[in-house]
Amino acid sequence: GRGPGGCRGGKTDMALRCAASLAAGRHPRGPRREGTVRWSSAAKASAVKINEKASREKILTLESMNPQVKAVEYAVRGPIVLKAGEIEKELRKGIKKPFTEVIKANIGDAHAMGQRPITFLRQVVALCTYPNLLDSPSFPEDAKKRARRILQGCGGNSLGSYTASQGINCIREDVASYIERRDGGVPADPDNIYLTTGASDGISAILKILISGGGKSRTGVMIPIPQYPLYSAAISELDAIQVNYYLDEENCWALNVNELRRALNEAKAYCNPKVLCIINPGNPTGQVQNRKCIEDVIHFAWEEKLFLLADEVYQDNVYSEGCQFHSFKKILYEMGPEYYNNVELASFHSTSKGYMGECGYRGGYMEVINLHPEIKGQLVKLLSVRLCPPVSGQAAMDIVVNPPVPGEESYAQFIKEKESVLNNLAKKAKLTEDMFNEIPGVQCNPLQGAMYAFPRIFIPSKAIEEAKAHKMAPDMFYCMKLLEETGICVVPGSGFGQREGTYHFRMTILPPVEKLKILLEKVKDFHIKFLEKYA
């Protein structure tokens, strides 16, 4: 197979190589020797045409892609985190900076920040993953007992098999028992439990099945501002209507039903609001809702016929004296049958937060009550498309809801580790609040729960003007400067939503105490210099 001028190979291969040679201004076989056949103009035109086809326009471009996906924003892993990654690469190459490491305080990733895993949880997952260890004397019997039970619920007694789309049945039973214990005997049905890939998977699935209509009848989803960006991202992806209600910063980020009513009534002019999302304890704001507030919200949802989503992944993370976690399910039940038998409620929990911090396992569950029987079938069908949640994550979730109890050999170590993590977080919550409030131009509400601070920062008008010149939100500009000058990566408040004219950032309190003190001192020094520069 020689083509014109001696090109070898098949027709397509030959044509492409020859076309490339022509485009480069040379003969396909190098400098033309005496006696070599010249290319005809027709052959040249044909080769160029083939070359043009080879570099045709892409089918998928920013203009042709799904516009809903393009509209999605997720600030927790947004531009500032990408910049932090670039700086880390530069540090590894030996490029000098005013700091030696990037401290990623942007995300609630406990183990990445040095928190130790809970031994019992890891033991059970290890046993499930490698059942030969069940014969090892190194593992306690209570861990082996749980592992055997989980494996019996798996096809072929293997964690590597698919499970039912709702999750392993015995784990759903354990979740139901946990909810009953947590809520003081309020009944829970395993059939209403759906194991999920973290809480995020459950939230997205419920929103997907709730959203419908077009124009003014398009589903509106009420979310708190500030909010966790999963909600705005999912709403954008599903082309639903985001309806903002504002938490009261002056009152420790409290939720006010009058504000809910304002948001709802205004939204009715352009959409059909039928979903109300609550995050309790709050992310990024850290407030813990009291019983009266939850009762008011439930009554509002009942009165306005709203489907309630209760994001309760920080239910173990409550620190302030006088604050207590109340589940929406428990309060709903105690409000009586008129509410309990009618208000549709989906509640979410996860292995990622609390005292566990097992983000990577992607374990979670949702409990959905008062769902129409036909919709229940539709939800299972929707979940079936992704086959099942990660089975190791299901096993991890089981240990969260079925931990060692008094009398079992692992109980003493388990409770010691759990209390150590939670007491340490409570100490860091108070330290962070106190140190932020010592900085001029910074105001931080009490961190009642969760694992973040969301301080309000004063940004001078000169800095705001410079941010505009760089086409940045003022708090993005502030956070970018903080990263570039100190190596501290936090998330600007604009990524979570905030009232017009106010500026914040979210910072996790997960670093070890000594490292957290250094981080807070660096933020203090930076902020004072920032105010002096732009005063």
Task: Summarize the structure in short.
Homodimer. Keywords: Aminotransferase, Pyridoxal phosphate, Transferase. The protein is an alpha/beta fold and 535 residues long.
Describe what this molecule looks like in 3D.
This protein has 535 residues and is of the alpha/beta class. The chain folds into 2 domains: 67-114 and 413-534, Aspartate Aminotransferase, domain 1, CATH 3.90.1150; 119-401, Type I PLP-dependent aspartate aminotransferase-like (Major domain) (Aspartate Aminotransferase, domain 2, 3-Layer(aba) Sandwich). Helix content is 44%, strand content 11%. It contains 19 helices and 14 strands. The protein has helices spanning 11-23, 41-54, 67-71, 79-92, 119-129, 141-152, 169-182, 198-210, 230-237, 257-267, 291-304, 328-334, 337-340, 373-384, 391-401, 411-436, 461-469, 474-486, 513-534; strands at 103-104, 193-197, 219-225, 241-246, 272-279, 307-311, 345-350, 363-369, 442-443, 452-453, 456-457, 488-489, 491-492, 505-508. Strands 2-8-7-6-5-3-4 form a 7-stranded mixed β-sheet, with helices on both faces. It has a 3-stranded antiparallel β-sheet with strand order 10-14-13. Strands 1-12 form a two-stranded parallel sheet. The longest helix is centred in the C-terminal third of the chain and has 26 residues, at 411-436. It is globular, with a radius of gyration of 29 Å. The N and C termini lie far apart (76 Å). 41% of the residues are buried.
